[in-house]
Design a protein that fits this description.
Layout (H helix, E strand, L loop, with lengths): L3 E10 L6 H6 L12 E10 L8 E6 L4 E3 L5 E9 L10 E9 L4 E8 L3 E5 L4 E11 L10 E8 L7 E6 L4 E3 L5 E9 L11 E8 L2 E9 L2 E4 L3 E10 L11 E8 L4 E3 L2 H5 L6 E4 L3 E6 L7 E4 L4 E4 L15 E3 L1 E8 L2 E8 L3 E4 L7 E3 L1 H6 L1 H4 L3 E9 L15 E6 L2 E6 L17 E8 L14 E4 L5 E3 L10 E3 L8 E5 L6 E6 L5 E7 L3 E5 L6 E9 L2 E9 L1
Parallel strand pairs: 4-10, 12-18, 19-20, 23-26, 28-29, 31-33
Antiparallel strand pairs: 1-2, 3-5, 5-8, 6-7, 6-9, 9-10, 11-13, 13-16, 14-15, 14-17, 17-18, 20-25, 21-22, 21-24, 22-23, 24-27, 25-26, 29-30, 29-32, 30-31, 32-33, 32-34, 35-36, 36-39, 37-38, 37-40, 40-41
Length: about 550
């Protein structure tokens, strides 16, 4: 908030002697009441223009850590937008909120909230984390992100007996290959009741408005199903198969999709309805395998990128980075961490392998301002540096996963998201670099990511390419660079000593090696595609490197 200074000025002003210079030099508003030869008291609001405003969100209700009574079914979330006078929800952008229950996954609930208070349905015995974020009129996050979070909980119920359906959740969409549905439920605050010995579970199923099943002697609820709209009632009965008083029942509804919706590209997929099931009929290439416990892989085509989230272990084939596949079938979801594809069937085929997806060459500003466009894609940001590099500090994901990189006032996180990288324990390099990685959206759902900057996920150390070239070989030079026409270039040195030439692509994979000797050696790279490569030459234990551009 800008500082205000209040000054009461007692001015004796003559209308005819009020100087033009005074008017031009005063940087504040004056309500002029010129009365000849009369003294006037003026209250002047001086504004400190030297301090910039930092837009933010303040969630003032509920308060952090608040515990609600077990009977609470809805909680009002109230917030203020601070230091952002040019933003009006609904006119200049929108408010998106995400919810995480009991440390589970985040789900984006809404992106068009315009009121300063909204209601969230809650259940007893549940912990909630709600994140509110401002997005612009195109529904893109601001940079840096403008968001805030609050944690609260609803006490465990100790009152009247109840039954809740834990899955399927109401409103859920099931895949077209669904042939059997299982409804899971939980009995709360009724320790004297065990289904099968103290009573029964009755369930009734409607499909497209017609009752199709009604059974009252089951503990497990499993039934055959095909495409259509369903609703399920579940009720507890006593040993005489009569309802309790008051009745103990609940209901849920779901939808089984009739066939996959066909999409031609990842861009088309990302513009489609969330929660529905799709088949990608054109090829996509695997660009990175996280090897984490959710079996997440990044895919990309020539239009967009996506994250495959295969925690159900549907993709049993040993897919590798560089594999191009067609026929992916699954569900499109989006949460606070971005767009995801959850597979439900194996792809049709691997049509080729060892493909290289060239990264988009971007400035840090271009990437951060267009993160929705480039999310989950391989990118190279140019001329950036690590803010905390001091020649001693090392990459250590046990201490921090976020390492801020910057170019002027533009900043992002270089993020050590996954295990097994060769960055661990290496010194954070000083200087200016071109950095290659996977672009991802900032979210508090990413543990430890609290600064609001968007991310570049580290791929490997070879993906960090020094802007200042290393050279310990006397007389070393490379020309021409960029390489054009016949795709040949010359490597020079002052010694006839044997040397070894290595060329790697932006993935760090060696694509060319050659043993040479002499002071001038011609290197032919006709078989390499156009793009950015990295040349390394070793001579008698000394090394020289260059970034090599093939046109």
């Amino acid at each position: 908030m800008k500082k205000k200074y209040f000054l009461i000025l007692l001015l004796s002003i003559s209308f005819f002697s009020f100087s033009q210079d005074l008017k031009e030099n005063m940087n504040f508003n004056i309500i002029e009441n010129y009365i000849n030869n009369k003294e006037v008291n003026l209250s002047v609001d001086l504004i400190d223009e030297s301090k910039e405003m930092n837009p933010s969100i303040n969630i003032f209700d509920p308060i952090e850590g608040q515990i609600f009574d077990e009977t609470t079914t809805a909680v009002n979330i109230s917030y203020d937008i601070l230091d952002f006078p040019s933003f009006t929800p609904g006119a200049d952008g929108y408010v998106r909120y995400s919810v995480r229950e009991n440390d589970g996954d985040y789900t984006v609930r809404d992106i068009e909230i315009t009121d300063a208070t909204f209601s969230l349905s809650v259940e007893s015995g549940t912990n909630y984390e709600v994140t509110i974020e401002l997005v612009d009129a195109s529904r893109n996050p601001f940079s840096p992100a403008i968001l805030a979070s609050v944690n609260f909980s609803v006490a465990e119920g100790t009152g009247n007996p109840s039954i809740i359906i834990t899955s399927l959740k109401s409103g859920e969409t099931l895949s077209p290959i669904t042939t059997e549905v299982e409804v899971n439920y939980e009995i709360k605050d009724f320790p004297a009741f065990t289904p099968g010995s103290d009573g029964f579970v009755k369930y009734t199923v409607w499909k497209n408005g017609d009752q199709i099943i009604s059974k009252d002697d089951f503990i497990d609820i499993i039934f055959d199903a095909t495409s259509g709209n369903y609703s399920v009632d579940v009720e507890l009965l006593n040993n005489s198969k009569e309802p309790f008083s008051p009745r103990i029942l609940t209901s849920s509804s779901f939808f089984i999709q009739d066939g996959y919706r066909v999409v031609n590209s990842l861009e088309e997929l990302g513009s489609s309805d969330r929660g529905a099931f799709y088949e990608l009929i054109n090829e996509v290439t695997i660009t990175y395998d996280t090897k984490n416990d959710q079996d997440q892989k990044y895919i990309q085509d020539n239009t967009a990128g996506f994250l495959i989230d295969d925690q159900n272990e549907i993709l049993i084939t040993n897919y590798k980075v560089g594999d191009a596949i067609i026929g992916l079938k699954g569900q499109y979801v989006e949460d606070a961490t971005g767009k995801k594809f959850i597979p439900v069937e194996e792809p049709t085929d691997i049509i080729s392998s060892e493909n290289v997806v060239a990264p988009k060459q971007l400035t840090l500003k271009e990437l951060s301002e267009n993160i929705q466009v480039y999310q989950s894609q391989r990118v190279t940001v140019e001329n950036v540096s690590f803010d905390i590099a001091d020649g001693v500090m090392k990459f250590d994901s046990s201490v921090s996963k976020n390492y801020v990189i910057s170019n002027g006032e533009d900043k992002m996180n270089f993020r050590l998201e996954f295990d097994g990288l060769d960055l661990e324990g290496t010194i954070i390099p000083q200087g200016t670099f071109d950095i290659t990685g996977i672009a991802t959206i900032s979210s508090t759902a990413s543990k430890g990511n609290s600064n609001g900057f968007h991310n570049i996920l580290a791929l490997e150390l070879k993906g960090i390419v020094a802007g200042v070239e290393e050279n310990t070989i006397d007389g070393f030079n490379v020309f021409p660079n960029p390489v054009t026409k016949n795709k040949t270039f010359i490597v020079t040195s002052s010694s006839f000593t044997k040397k070894k030439v290595f060329i790697s692509n932006v993935l760090g994979k060696e694509v060319y090696t050659k043993n040479i000797s002499g002071i001038n050696n011609e290197i032919n790279v006709q078989r390499l595609d156009t793009g950015v490569y990295f040349l390394r030459v070793i001579e008698s234990g000394r090394t020289a490197t260059r970034k090599l551009l093939i046109k």
